[in-house]
Amino acid sequence: MAGRLVTAAPASLAKGARTDSPVLEVVGLSKSYGRVRAVTDVSFDVLPGEILGIVGDNGAGKSTLMNMVSGAVAPDGGELRIAGERLAPHTIGNARARGIEMIYQDLGLSDNLSVVENVFLGREWTAGPARLPVLRKKAMRARTREVLERLGIDLHDMNVLVEGLSGGQRQMVAIARALVTENEPRVMVMDEPTAALGTTESRGVNDLIVRLRDRGYAVIVISHRIPEVLALADRLLVMKGGRRVYHGPTGALDVERCVQLIVRGADALGTEEPA
């Protein structure tokens, strides 16, 4: 019988973690593949303790943009600044070292491994000589439990295989994995975290995203679920044809206006978009 993941808000959450200084600034990023302009001169920022939603139709440039943010793709122009310092060289390793973690839609989990093994997959803790290292299983199990409990996730069986977990539980394990890094992440990028989930599990994952925000993380959520992201995010970035057409508070939009921005671009605003 698989263990059960239960989410509950921890008492230690730090409220009011948001500040006015961006933890991530994207300045004029552009990327082309041959003659195709995937992203053109896109700028935005995200604050600590803030959820930024990113929406747009298929082919709008969302994934390419986030791949540049995560360091997986080098831009042709523009730059990223993390806590005011330019990201250079533009690589995944450097982005992670500076505190950017991306959770892709496929999650990157291994079904035949346990929760602990997945959380530490590729970055296992070892002891002993380099030629014959020994896994620090107890330490990894304790660290996994600590992170899960900090997120308000109660896992009754730490050794349960991931294949026995539901979609929402798997998403939570992927989030925990992103937090068990050498450097505490500052920015969490999530690609369609609730796309394959039902209503109840989506609510659980979104509650967890809010708790991450309340702990001071900057969270970027790519989503096609417009009502959901409008309710979840503090600010919204709308993409169309590789360009930014809106970057501003979600409170200024409703579902209909957001759809119009996705379909028609900045013309749907009737005025210039917010800076």
TrEMBL record:
Q: What is the lineage of its organism?
A: Bacteria, Bacillati, Actinomycetota, Actinomycetes, Micromonosporales
Coiled coil regions in record: none
Q: Where is the AAA+ ATPase domain?
A: 48-251
Keyword Nucleotide-binding assigned: yes
| Source organism (scientific name) | Polymorphospora rubra
Alphabetized, the UniProt keywords read:
ATP-binding, Nucleotide-binding
Q: What PROSITE patterns does the record tag this protein with?
A: ABC_TRANSPORTER_1 (PS00211)
Molecular function via GO: ATP binding; ATP hydrolysis activity
Can you tell which superkingdom this protein's organism belongs to?
Answer: Bacteria
Q: Does the keyword Manganese apply?
A: no
Protein name as it appears in the record: ABC transporter ATP-binding protein
Q: Which InterPro entries match?
A: AAA+_ATPase, ABC_carbohydrate_import_ATPase, ABC_transporter-like_ATP-bd, ABC_transporter-like_CS, P-loop_NTPase
